[in-house]
UniProtKB/TrEMBL annotation:
Matching Pfam families: PFK (PF00365)
Residues bound to substrate: 141-143, 187-189, 245
Domain of life, source organism: Bacteria
HAMAP family: Phosphofructokinase_II_B2
Listed name of the protein: Pyrophosphate--fructose 6-phosphate 1-phosphotransferase
Species lineage: Bacteria, Bacillati, Bacillota, Tissierellia, Tissierellales
Top EC class of this enzyme: transferase
Residue ranges of domain Phosphofructokinase in the record: 4-303
Pathway note: Carbohydrate degradation; glycolysis; D-glyceraldehyde 3-phosphate and glycerone phosphate from D-glucose: step 3/4
An example Gene Ontology molecular-function term: diphosphate-fructose-6-phosphate 1-phosphotransferase activity
Length: 411
C-alpha cells in the first residue's frame, strides 16, 4: 500500500497550487492508494486536520488545470517552527499521526523556513531510525531568495503582476504637467529581487518607467535619496520609484514606521510602510506632490499567473512526488541552462542547502546601475512569459474549491 500526504506552508504564491497539482497527478500516475491533504501545513498533521483526495473526481474534472489557475494556498498555511530539541513531544505526535494513516510519502511545499521543517523531520527520522516514510520538500517563494536554484517558483508571477501594475501607474502619473514622485513599495525583506524586477518595465521604452530603485542589499542616506530624486526631476516631471519593503537608509531614520511589534513565527519582523515614510519626507523637503503605492499581499496571490512559472511549479511538484517513492531528505530544484534560448533542467539537493538561507542579488550587479538593469531584464523576462487562462462567471474569476476534489467522508 502506497499512501501520501501533501501540505503547503509559509507565504502563498500564485503558483503554489500548481506544485500541489503536479504532486497529486504524479501520485495518481504512480498508483498511490490514498492521497491525503494536510490543512494548514504541519499543524494539520499535528491536529489531525486531514482530507483525502477523490482521485476519480480529480482526474475526470481536470482539477489539475483548475488548480494551476488558482492563486494562494488552497490547503491553507502556517508558520509553525518545529522545536530544536527532539525531546519535545511534538515530533512524536507528528509521526504517530503519520503512522496511523500509514503514510509512505510526505511532500511539504514551502520556502526556506518550510525547508527547515523538512530538514528537522528528516533529522528526527534518522535519530529514531524511522525508515518507512520519505519526506521531500518542494520549493516556492515570491522573494526569489532560495539558494541552489536559478529562480524560485512564484517569483515569475509576482514579477509579472508588479510590472503590469507599473505600466498602469505610469499611464496615470504622466497625465499632469507638474512635478510628482510615486513610491511603489514591493515585497522583499532582505532580498530585493522583486523590487529589482520592476526594471523590466523599462525594457524597450522611450523613457524610464521606473526612474529609481532602492534595495535592501544597498543602504543609502536620506540626503542621497533626495539628491537622486532632484536630479531625476530635472529631466522628468513624474517619477516612479520602486522600493523594497526592507530597504533601510544608512541612519535608520526610515525605521520609525516600518517595523511592527509582531513576527511570523520564525522571528521575522513584519515590515511595511517604507514607501509612505519616503513619500512624506519628499513632500515636506521638496514641496511637491508625492504618494505611496503599497502593493502588499496582492502581488503574491493574484490571477495574472505566468504560464512559465505555473508549468515549472507543476514540474517541481511532480518531481517531488516521484522522488518520495524511493528517497527522502531531498528538494527538487531547477537551474537555467547556458545558451541564448531559455531552458532549464531539474535536479535535487538536501534541504540543509536551502533551509534558513537567503540568496541575494549579486553585488556585482548592484554596483553598476546599467548592469543591474540589463541583468535583471535578461533574468526576469523569460519567467513572466505567457498567461494561465482563467474561468469567469458574471465577469468575475471562478476558483476551484477544496470540496471539489476531496472525499466527502471524514477521516
Amino acid at each position: 500500500m502506497k499512501k501520501a500526504i501533501i501540505a503547503q506552508s509559509g507565504g502563498p504564491t500564485s503558483v503554489i497550487n500548481s506544485s500541489l497539482a503536479g504532486a497529486i497527478s504524479s501520485f495518481i500516475e504512480n498508483d498511490f492508494d490514498n492521497i491525503f491533504l494536510s490543512i494548514n501545513g504541519i499543524e494539520g498533521i499535528i491536529n489531525g486536520n486531514i482530507k483525502e483526495v477523490d482521485k476519480k473526481r480529480f482526474v475526470s474534472n481536470n482539477i489539475d488545470k483548475k488548480l494551476m489557475a488558482r492563486p494562494s494556498s488552497i490547503l491553507g498555511s502556517c508558520r509553525f517552527k518545529l522545536p530544536e530539541s527532539f525531546n519535545d513531544g511534538i515530533y512524536e505526535k507528528i509521526f504517530d499521526n503519520l503512522k496511523k494513516l500509514d503514510i509512505s510519502s510526505l511532500i511539504y511545499i514551502g520556502g526556506n523556513d518550510s525547508m527547515d521543517t523538512v530538514m528537522k523531520l528528516n533529522s528526527y527520522m534518522k535519530n529514531k531510525s524511522i525508515k518507512n516514510i520519505n519526506i521531500i520538500g518542494c520549493p516556492k517563494t515570491i522573494d526569489n531568495d532560495l539558494c541552489e536554484m536559478d529562480h524560485s517558483p512564484g517569483f515569475g508571477s509576482a514579477a509579472k503582476y508588479i510590472n503590469t501594475t507599473i505600466q498602469s501607474l505610469r499611464a496615470d502619473v504622466d497625465i499632469y504637467n507638474l512635478k510628482s514622485v510615486t513610491f511603489v513599495e514591493i515585497m522583499g525583506r532582505n532580498a530585493g529581487w522583486l523590487a529589482a524586477s520592476s526594471l523590466v518595465s523599462n525594457y524597450k521604452k522611450d523613457k524610464k518607467f521606473v526612474n529609481l530603485l532602492y534595495l535592501p542589499e544597498e543602504k543609502k542616506s536620506l540626503d542621497e535619496i533626495i539628491d537622486e530624486i532632484k536630479k531625476e526631476l530635472e529631466s522628468e516631471n513624474n517619477l516612479i520609484v520602486a522600493v523594497a519593503e526592507g530597504f533601510m537608509d544608512t541612519e535608520d531614520k526610515l525605521n520609525i514606521d516600518m517595523f511592527s511589534n509582531t513576527d511570523d513565527g520564525f522571528n521575522h519582523k513584519i515590515v511595511a510602510g517604507v514607501a509612505s515614510r519616503l513619500a512624506d519626507i519628499v513632500r515636506n523637503k521638496l514641496n511637491i506632490k508625492s504618494r505611496a503605492v503599497e502593493l502588499n499581499i496582492v502581488q503574491r496571490s493574484n490571477i495574472l499567473i505566468s504560464k512559465t512559472d505555473s508549468k515549472e511549479a507543476y514540474e517541481l511538484g511532480s518531481l517531488a512526488a516521484k522522488l518520495s517513492i524511493e528517497s527522502t531528505n531531498l528538494i527538487p530544484i531547477l537551474n537555467r541552462q547556458k545558451g541564448e534560448d531559455y531552458d532549464i533542467s531539474y535536479q535535487a539537493v538536501n534541504p540543509e542547502k536551502i533551509a534558513n538561507k537567503e540568496k541575494k542579488i549579486p553585488q556585482a550587479w548592484i554596483k553598476d546601475e546599467k548592469k543591474l538593469e540589463k541583468e535583471i531584464i535578461a533574468y526576469t523576462l523569460p519567467l513572466i512569459n505567457g498567461e494561465v487562462k482563467q474561468e469567469y462567471e458574471n465577469g468575475l474569476p471562478v476558483f476551484v474549491n477544496l470540496k471539489d476534489f476531496i472525499m466527502e467522508k471524514d477521516l
